[in-house]
């Protein structure tokens, strides 16, 4: 599990096409410190498994499903990426609960700079719009952000200078893709309250009764 607090702005140093998958090598001296084979690292919000690492770089394999559902397939040598290690038990949850399971992709629609922050508008797939609410949480390229405004096919976020300087969102331009992960709690609530999750409620005194 992650929190959406980016630890490091890394860089893609190699991409190998494996046919039905890709192998990425990424530079990230902070996130690779103490890393072991099999550890997880979030790359632009996608949870990847460390295959090997040395000299501040690590290798991860990305299967076709992940390439299809995320923007990782668009990465090339030199691309900058947001990196985060999993949260250790007992640490503060600085952002919100992030699984590293991308739900879909959006695109940067427009940017409106201000003196001390910037408003960024991002397109939203129709099947995800019901999970995004004003002042709720959403993960964009692995960054935990608060939704400012939520529309039927878009949402906006307000970015402070730290986020602009230390993450990929400071560099994304209109038309650039971003990975989106909605709040997992909203999906569980929908499942529990939906038709498949509805269960009969026993009346007082009828527990254990059968028809």
Automatic annotation (TrEMBL):
First and last residues of every Lumazine-binding repeat: 1-96, 97-193
A family per Pfam: Lum_binding
InterPro entries named among the record's database cross-references: ATP_synth_asu-like_sf, Lumazine-bd, Lumazine-bd_dom, Riboflavin_synthase-like_b-brl
EC top class named in words: transferase
Pathway the protein takes part in: Cofactor biosynthesis; riboflavin biosynthesis; riboflavin from 2-hydroxy-3-oxobutyl phosphate and 5-amino-6-(D-ribitylamino)uracil: step 2/2
Keywords: Repeat, Riboflavin biosynthesis, Transferase
A single BP term in Gene Ontology: riboflavin biosynthetic process
EC numbers: 2.5.1.9
Location of the Lumazine-binding domain: 1-96, 97-193
CDD domains, per the entry: Riboflavin_synthase_like (cd00402)
Keyword rRNA-binding: no
Any one GO molecular function term: riboflavin synthase activity
Catalytic activity: 2 6,7-dimethyl-8-(1-D-ribityl)lumazine + H(+) = 5-amino-6-(D-ribitylamino)uracil + riboflavin
Highest taxon listed in the record's lineage: Bacteria
Entry keyword annotation includes Chaperone: no
PANTHER family: RIBOFLAVIN SYNTHASE, RIBOFLAVIN SYNTHASE ALPHA CHAIN
Function: Catalyzes the dismutation of two molecules of 6,7-dimethyl-8-ribityllumazine, resulting in the formation of riboflavin and 5-amino-6-(D-ribitylamino)uracil.
Subunit structure: Homotrimer.
Stated name of the protein: Riboflavin synthase
Organism: Streptomyces dioscori
